[in-house]
User: Fold this.
Amino acid sequence: METIKTIEDLIEETTRIKDGAKGEIYFLNRYAKITHPTKGLISFKLYDFQKQIIRDFWSYRHNIHNKSRQMGDSTIVAGHVAHFVMFNNDKDVLILSNKQRNAQKFLRKVKRIIKATPEILRPEVMSDNKTSLELSNGSNVEAVATTEDAGRSDALSLLVVDEAAQIKSELADEIWTSAGSTLAHGGAAIILSTPRGIGNFFHQMCISARDMENEFHYEFYHWSLHPVFNQGMEHDLTGKLTSPWYRGECKRLNNSETKIAQELDGEFLSSGDNVISEKVMKLHEDNIRPPKLTAFINDNLWVWREPEKEMRYIIGADVSRGDAADFSTAQVLSLDEKNEQCAEYRGKIPPDVFGDFLITLGKEYNNALIIPDSNGIGYATALRLVEKKYPNIHFSESFKKTHEQFTNYYKEGGKIPGFQTTSVTRPLIISQFEADMRNQNVLMHSSRLFDEIPTFQYINGRPDHLPGYQDDLIMAMSIALFIRATHVKAIINSREMTESILASFSKDDGNTLDDYGLGVSKGFGERTNPFITPDGQDVRWLLGK
Assistant:
């Protein structure tokens, strides 16, 4: 319809505009105005993929979009909000973004489309300020930055969360929990963002939606859907889609793999501040396989390579309390050219019992060099190894007064059992882990370890796991790889050094080194009960067995 001249014309046009997704598409194509960076205010003409977005809004109550940058997704959502509040009475819409400035920018898009609509078609604007808009039909739009109270309202008709990946996961979870009750009576939700790593709220919601485990409809809008961006599109030598526009954008982003993954490719893994890049992880994918056998409590010990005669081994161990969110872990590596992951343990047992388990595991692997993390709760595990006179323990130089309790056991202090993970040494062992993975100097098999890597990221400049995830297997592996790389001679001479240090150990429980069966392992087929400690104590009562 060219012009609205009569009441009949108005009724006809309004009826057409209100005709579901078809009517909204017509309205946006005919009346919406957007700001072009060089052309100024222009009409908004929807591409086919943008029309499909509108149809999804009408087909699904909850929608979540992972997208490439510059796809016009936020403008489409702004158009949907404008249509929603103009042609429906008494609707409350809340727009949330990571910053107040971004929330206000989103609201300005909504206002621009409303003000571009002929006055005869739209309600009167009753109140208009930077953070809200109130219409005469009782509908309201509010735009705010994310806070713990942001999602609380008597009843929301529509919740829009923009740049969701930029919102801290704890805050986003709180907001969604609050908003859930306000949407329970039929309200709709739209969540959209470019990705920013994995493990965060946006990533978890997208994955759950993709796997149909929550109420959201998931779509990924890749740049290749855009008819301007995909001109001249082709596959490069690696099979990846590219185009003149894409190559230009990559150049604008200084060819940063992280920024390209986030802004253009919509990839969750590569878009975060990962310690281990996706490219490096792919180097190891083919080596991940199920264990050859499992053992111990709940089959928490995984074995890929059983002990071999005359082979030397090293065991890195990370210790937890046994009742917390973290796990006690151990990684067994071969000291040959393969540097192969032979076995791995992850479980929750008391620190001293973990020490007994490490002794059993070490004996199986030809009295492997054991390197427990001896910080905090790890003291108990390290002392257990010493008290039981395990013959092959890594000793570190003591440089903290807090370690005096160790040195008091010796005639000559200066060395403590285990490895001290500190703010100084932690970056060093993580760096070794990254380097060995990047250079393929370690042969990894564990899917449990592999699963920890994507959520191990730089957080405020410090390598750490994301909230709700673990890095215990990574830490045990890092300790083993670091000691292997920096203490080769010490490893070769470790038995002699341990015997010398233990000879000066003031405690004596009557056992000798011979009691621990020095020499070749009996093998897993003949292994003793793992619930029985080396001195014959049954510890199953500690584990509820």
